[in-house]
Amino acid sequence: MISRNILNYNNIFRLGFCYAMIFVIPIVDSSSNVLSQEKTSVSKENNSPRNPGGGLTAEQISQLEALGYLSGYVPPPEKTNVTIYNKEKAYDGLNFFSSPHKPSAYIVDMQGNTLHEWSRNIDEVWPEKNFDGVEHTKFWRRVYLYPNGDLLAIFENIGIVKLDKDSNILWKNDNRAHHDLEVLENGDIWVLTNKLNSIPRIAGDVPVQEDYLTLMDQNGKILKEISLLASIENSEFQSIMKRQMNFKNPEKQPAFDIFHTNTLEVLDGRVEHILPEFRKGNILTSFRTLDAIAVVDQKSGLAVWVYQERFRGQHDPKVLESGNMLLFDNFGSGEASIVLEYGLENMDVVWSYSGTSESPFYSIGSGTAQRLLNGNTLITETQQGRAFEVTREKEIVWEFFNPNLVGANKELIAAIWEMIRIEKTYSLNWINNNARHP
Q: Which residues are CB-contacts of 236 (< 8 A; sequence separation ≥ 6)?
């Protein structure tokens, strides 16, 4: 597999950007269900698999499935593609991203030239299903690149598909994958999924979208599922669920996205000597609606570490080679975003980037940050369709605006969910003249 030090796939609401509508309601205090941290299993009630849509009407299921991302949000700038490139200071490599003007992903060079493209419409992946009128089925929310040119692509809240370098379908799974995934060295795949459930103790009659950590084998077969609701409810951190926004008339709302989980990173144990909870194999995740990040023990299914300070609506926490943590804070500077680097021992901020008056930086949803091997940071400003690289001194040395347009009249710049810098030594030998470029 391609090293996560080079390709970071970790990888997003209150203002309605991430989902067309997200609603959060008070959580019923069920302290009697809390288990001690030493327990190695969770209660049958809270962690048993639920039937998708169990207890929901067809109308409620339809409303939940209609929630999703938009393909664009703002008009494009006058100039797109690569607008800044300082060859001396930028970290040389290739750039990998998906674009929501259609289900597609690209490798482009530092000048913005397209070297390869993948594309496959959802109707070709699941021809038996009807996705008319569902915006987020028209593009890929997250993609993963294998060394041989194979690709994993997530259709948000629909499923995951694996394609070869020529965009031929290798396998698919309609497991309601969303947001993030990670491929392990043995080929197994951890992916965020969700299920549509009726959980009266949580939301009364309002349908619930419940997130799971799901382990699949390399052929797309599900091996294991961990309910993130159960992981919190049955841990010592149950109280964080009370830190949600209230809203009036919950019975009039179509859905309740409990956590809006947006990140999955399998920890490698490099900081276990500082924080034992970060031991190898545990999973770092991010709950947007709770303004919280957490570590889940994949063996017990319980949350073993939670942090809820200094950020709001955050995305993409990750542990760096240095042992620090990098995080994209969507609302940390008021109406501006900020990338934060924390020292994990005391969670002190050791570096940050919040833009300037000349180059403002704000994405109310999504957004990622990748630390490059020369110390620079590649930031994805999703809503603006922008990715840019900054030095430790906060100088912008590379900038890219998505050249693709969306909207009825092509009046909006296509968003960028995540731009990833690939090491220049990554081999493109799998690209040949017979490759299909849709």
A: 34, 36, 37
